[in-house]
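Technical annex B. To support the medicinal chemistry partners, we prepared a structural model of the target in complex with pyridoxal-5'-phosphate, based solely on the information shown next.
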Amino acid sequence: MSVMTSPATSAHLSGDASSPAPQALPKPNLISVEEAKAMDVARMTDLFKAHMNPGQLHFMKLLGFHKIKVERAEGMFYIDQTGRKILDFFGGFGSLAFGHNHPRLLAARQKFQEENRHEIAIAFMSQYQAALTHNLAACSPGDLDMVFLGSSGSEAMEAAVKVAERAAGPKKPKIVYAENSFHGKTKGVLSITDGSLYRGDFRLVNNTVRVPFGDIDAIERAFRSDPAIGTIVLETVQGGGGIITAPTAFWQKLRALCDRYGVLWVADEVQCGYGRTGRFYAFEHHGVVPDVTALAKSLGGGKTAMGAMIARREVFMKAYGTPKSAMIHAPATFGGMGEACITSIEALNVLYDEKLIENAASTGAYLLERLEALHAKYPKIIKEIRGQGLMVGLEFQDFSQTLPMVLRPMVAMLDDKLKGSLSGFVGALLLRDYDVLVAFTEYNRNVIRLEPPLICSRENVDTFIAALDALLGRGIVAIVKDFVKSQMG
Ligand SMILES: Cc1ncc(COP(=O)(O)O)c(C=O)c1O
């Protein structure tokens, strides 16, 4: 419906009946949606340099990522501008449990749009938020019943640390975190993210205590010596650290220690949760329940931005249980938008209907078995295979000192950080020559991270293993020389 503006209305809008009508604003030089879709790699590169992150392009070039424009994405594959299908074993660092564009998620979103449903629900309650929070409580053990919705893992973890701080009370403000942890890049959780790369020279909160991951004695010493410690935050499986797990005995002792010393345990399941390890939460492998947890990544079904903090009811009520304290915690503008919620609701239903958690367990076991066979075949190249379900790390031997002397200056010239790290070379060549995408880790440059979608089949694993086998079969010197040559060209 078009709206006619009467002279009286425009005078009212301009505030002065005698002032001239405002001139139409010239439209800035805007790119349209169709032009964006049709853009070529050269123009994308120019705009990336002009408006986004010129320095990051350096790393994309090292890995060969800068040549690719994704045109479509379906299931386990990206399809690039040449029609090439790229097998996705990167999986958006765990954001793509359902693969790309799962048809049930597309259908739910399309129907929602066609019905003109509402998105922003700040004034009213939302039936979609109500259903999603119910579903998350239903998927969570114990009394992990109270849910805060946000739009990223960092936001979910900020909410987790805040609820714990308030529940622990003013006498216990200190937070324990682990070496090699990653909990996000926003300022609060950056203080418990253990990477000089990210921490830079930012001024961070200083009420933190750092312990080695998985070291129960160090944690007990910290709890015993400092009664101001009120919270401990740990990833159940460290992702950025290079897929590091701790045994069941550690988690059980941790739960007991937290109960003894009155410390709240926050389990960061942003990357390892949501079925990836073969249980909904990775901590469920160990028969223990934390006080607070957080999910994000695949919670949005790979179609939307969704994060959630889930707290035990008692903890939540201590923090925000009164009318006075309730509003401290009220969500941000985009927390729990309509279409995002219904995407997440449908995604949780698909996760169980399609038995994707069971598939993560069985296909993940198959992946580990096939990788162990490669480990046995190439013991001088592969150092260790580790992980659980479809969250797997492959650590290469450290070649920084053993690369043939002739290659060292060439490799050093390329990039100081990649020097001697086979994972970069292997990842780049897997993509270039075998159409396979893998991920890397921030803290350990010798590790390749494998987090394929939970829809991954044995056939996909076979394709990946055949590619890796063929590449490693060329030998280290050939791999490094080929990589160096590709960078010179
Ligand atoms: C364990 C963990 N926590 C928190 C985050 C932060 O999530 P986001 O990037 O959505 O802010 C990540 C992201 O990689 C993560 O792996």
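Notes passed to the chemistry partners:
Residues 104-353 form a domain with the Aspartate Aminotransferase; domain 2 fold (CATH 3.40.640.10).
The first helix runs from residue 7 to 14.
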